[in-house]
């Protein structure tokens, strides 16, 4: 039978060890979790995040919504009415992309190219690629925009030249041509033989995604922070096309933000930056609300009216205008001039249906219906930085502005109108497999400390039990206990 002294010693020893172990682990568990998370998330050749980042296994789809102009005849007849459009689509493409030509740098960055492919998904689309779309001819309106500051002689000569190939500024083509196949134009063909012309478009056709399927160079090179030396910079784009600046001036030209695939744990800061190579700049999304996706709680960030403000309400956005300050021809809030990013074409980017834009834009177009679900938004799990859902939604518009001596461009009664061409939505959602993985990681973060607290409590009870047994033995012992028992005394006398 085990003596009370042994019981007490075992209980107090085990209790002390358990209390110390549980308390220390509970204190240091957040640091331990963070360290292990960093090992998994830092981009290296053997990290868990590398293969997922290099070739995204999550299904992605790109939806195109085109605006078909329905009152061309009335507009050409000079009727004073807004441009009437009907939205067609969506035309859905499955998107896959992989990071190629990887170069690991000594400064904890990685240089790569993003190779993307798109495949049409007819069963997910509302319409076919043979649907005909009538809209503004980008080539015809680009030429006057590029030459708007030239002299009269140049304008009249070019106007005569373009008028020999085009009767007006409208063109009709099928969806496939507008996107990937391209629309042939004799002006582009002739201009390609005269490299000194101001029309510097390096393609023989026009298409929003012409020669982009599988291209390495279209998106350009990216230099991304791996997070190895500074985990808070994980996924940040340090350089694009081998430069830390784009064509925009001042702060607007800084290369920064994530491309949306990798994020360091954000812990709920008020805003995040997303770098978009399609518009040669970054977008700042602001914290909107908490959301739950597949049982995982995160924070949703979205675009507000500051994203394409141009300096009208937010002075720091004035650098998106071509001149300092807010010149007379700087567009109202809600549309970003990306002409420098698109070979000088009068292209402007906005949210779909001019959501959150100045009423100046939708007042000139009939058939728009902006809803909040068209907003650009991103949801992140804060403790792991895992994207829970992404809805990248933007609209491409062309500015049709009267330019003196360009008769072909001045057919609209309105001398300044931003015509919506199409808008796209790229939605990415977390898969059940990755949601389960995230939930498992979060359980470790949240529940392990409770287990360690319980372990500490158990240790306290063991310690108290040992102390109780010891005290109980002492209290039940006689007050005058002889030092030697009678048997021990007799044996010593003999």
UniProtKB/TrEMBL annotation:
Its main location: membrane. It comes from the Eukaryota. This is Protein croquemort-like. It is found in: Cell membrane. It is a multi-pass membrane protein. InterPro entries: CD36/SCARB1/SNMP1, CD36_fam. It comes from Trichoplusia ni. One of its GO terms (molecular function) is scavenger receptor activity. The chain crosses the membrane at residues 6-32, 450-471. Belongs to the CD36 family. GO terms for cellular component: cytoplasm; plasma membrane. Keywords: Cell membrane, Disulfide bond, Glycoprotein, Membrane, Receptor, Transmembrane, Transmembrane helix. Coiled coil: none annotated. Disulfide bonds join 252-319, 280-341, 321-330.
């Amino acid at each position: 039978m085990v003596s009370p002294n042994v019981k007490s010693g075992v209980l107090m020893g085990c209790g002390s060890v358990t209390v110390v172990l549980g308390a220390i682990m509970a204190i240091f568990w957040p640091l331990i979790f963070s360290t292990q998370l960093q090992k998994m998330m830092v981009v290296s050749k053997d990290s868990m995040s590398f293969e997922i980042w290099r070739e995204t296994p999550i299904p992605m789809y790109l939806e195109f919504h085109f605006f078909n102009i329905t009152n061309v005849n009335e507009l050409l007849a000079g009727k004073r009415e807004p441009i009437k459009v009907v939205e067609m689509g969506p035309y859905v493409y499955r998107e896959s992309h992989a990071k190629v030509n990887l170069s690991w740098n000594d400064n904890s960055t990685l240089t790569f190219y993003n190779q993307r492919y798109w495949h049409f998904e007819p069963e997910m689309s509302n319409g076919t690629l043979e649907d005909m779309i009538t809209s503004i001819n980008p080539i015809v309106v680009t030429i006057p925009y590029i030459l708007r500051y030239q002299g009269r002689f140049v304008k009249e000569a070019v106007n005569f030249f373009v008028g020999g190939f085009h009767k007006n500024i409208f063109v009709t083509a099928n969806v496939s041509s507008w996107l990937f196949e391209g629309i042939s134009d004799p002006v582009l063909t002739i201009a390609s033989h005269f490299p000194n012309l101001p029309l510097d478009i390096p393609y023989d056709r026009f298409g929003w995604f012409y020669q982009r399927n599988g291209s390495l160079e279209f998106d350009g090179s990216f230099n991304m922070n791996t997070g190895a030396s500074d985990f808070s910079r994980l996924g940040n784009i340090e350089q694009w096309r081998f430069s830390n600046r784009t064509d925009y001036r001042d702060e607007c030209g800084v290369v920064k933000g994530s491309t949306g695939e990798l994020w360091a744990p954000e812990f709920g800061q008020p805003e995040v930056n997303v770098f978009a190579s399609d518009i040669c700049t970054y977008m700042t999304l602001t914290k909107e609300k908490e959301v739950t996706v597949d049982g995982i709680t995160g924070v949703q960030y979205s675009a507000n009216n500051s994203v394409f403000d141009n300096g009208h309400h937010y002075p720091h956005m004035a650098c998106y205008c071509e001149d300092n300050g807010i010149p007379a021809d700087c567009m109202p809030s809600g549309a970003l001039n990306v002409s420098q990013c698109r070979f000088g074409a009068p292209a402007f980017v906005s949210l779909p249906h001019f959501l959150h834009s100045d009423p100046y834009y939708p007042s000139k177009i009939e058939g728009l219906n902006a809803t909040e679900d068209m907003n650009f938004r991103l949801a992140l799990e804060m403790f792991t930085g895992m994207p829970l859902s992404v809805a990248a939604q933007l609209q491409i518009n062309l500015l049709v502005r009267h330019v003196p001596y360009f008769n072909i461009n001045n057919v609209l009664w309105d001398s300044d109108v931003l015509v919506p061409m199409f808008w796209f939505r790229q939605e990415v959602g977390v898969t059940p497999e990755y949601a389960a993985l995230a939930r498992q990681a979060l359980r470790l973060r949240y529940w392990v400390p409770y287990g360690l607290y319980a372990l500490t409590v158990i240790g306290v009870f063991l310690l108290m039990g040992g102390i109780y047994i010891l005290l109980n033995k002492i209290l039940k012992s006689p007050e005058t206990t002889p030092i030697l028992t009678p048997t021990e005394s007799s044996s010593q006398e003999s």
